[in-house]
Amino acid sequence: MELLIYIELLVVLAAIFIGARVGGIGLGIFGMMGLAILVFVFGLKPGSAPIDVMLMIVAVITAASALQSAGGLDYLVQVAEKILRKNPSMVTFLAPVVCYFFTFFSGTGHVAYSLLPIIAEIATESKVRPERPLSISVIASQQAITASPISAATAALLSKDLLGSHGIELSNILMVCIPATLIGVIVGAIAVNFIGVPLEKDPEYQRRLAEGLIGNSQDAKKALTPQQQRKAQTAVWIFLCGVLSIVLFGSVSSLRPVFADGTQLGMPEIIEIVMMTVAGLIFIITKADVTKAVKGSVFLAGMQAVIAIFGIAWMGDTFFQGNLEFFKSSIEHIVTEYPFLFSLALFVMSILLFSQAATVRTLYPLGIALGIPPMTMVAMFPAVNGYFFIPNYPTVVAAINFDRTGTTRIGKYVLNHSFQVPGFVATIVALVVGYIIVLTMG
Predict the structure, then answer these.
(1) What are the GO MF terms of this UniProt record (predicted)?
(2) Are 357 and 305 contacting, i.e. CB atoms less than 8 angstroms apart?
(3) pTM of the model
(4) What pLDDT was estimated at residue 3?
(5) 3-state SS of the chain: helix, strand, coil percent to 5?
């Protein structure tokens, strides 16, 4: 029996590994192929398909795509650039905070792509080692996902299949994860300040400078026209109102409608309704181009995430639910006694899946089945930010490429790269702070 379970586990891991190597929608496709093997070869009953999570992601991504189409993201990037240029010497501390709140607000870490070249440019001009602000900014954009009220990962955690049915509200997650992740990012920014030699003494920078590989600052982006700026600002305000309304509904349960049969409207449905309405209002009021929205980077990345979660999460749920008794008898007492081990499992799984939401949807059902207290699992939420460990995630690669000085790099042994220290510091601090907050809440 145990041998069969280990073979099934190999199938799951192989599907994850191959899907991750293929990239894009490959994770979802190979996850579904793994599911097919589990069901038709090993006879496991299919688990719960992550429909709620997928619908919430679709709604949020649609709204974010509308915002991008209306120029809202470009406007926010210009605002960020002004903030950073006012205090260029503080870029190591300001950049990650800006990235954090941009991700928190938008629900996607992909906004970092627009900010990274600005951060690299300002750091280089200010003779600040670009590795420092770039590395922690990438980590900040990841940490903020586990604090954002509209991120796919938070939506997954709140779904009825997971903590949403165990008394956890959006307010619980925000009260724990916002301070925990923000403190983690700040401590991470302090830590990276001690990484590497000053820029002027870096041999790679000196080599590139001598060879003329580092020219003047990059060309500035074309500024928005007054009309475009008004349109973008309107879209931003509509989007912000949508986010705030979700936070309000999630924090004050009495605001959520109660129907004749006594049931109350759940947060998944509220997120779906509000964000799709936000998208509609942006399109109507700003006259944003719908075609442009579906061709934008946010929409494409978001839809890839939906497909990935569809396959991987369904496969994972099928495997764990089909072998639940084995896991309970084998590791329940260990995880109950040493709950941090479940955090480690989340961290490792996120490295394999490259997705916080997919990690949540794959492993949290096991945590619930093992009897880990719901609030403890909320404190563990930042552990799903482990995909900085292997330096092949798009934002990590982008940060390396945007650094013209060569200080942000992948080391000789691959894993000794620029993002390890800030990543581990921010994640560990976030977990510790989150756990302390949960303990003080009783």
Answers:
(1) C4-dicarboxylate transmembrane transporter activity
(2) yes
(3) 0.75
(4) 86
(5) 75, 0, 25
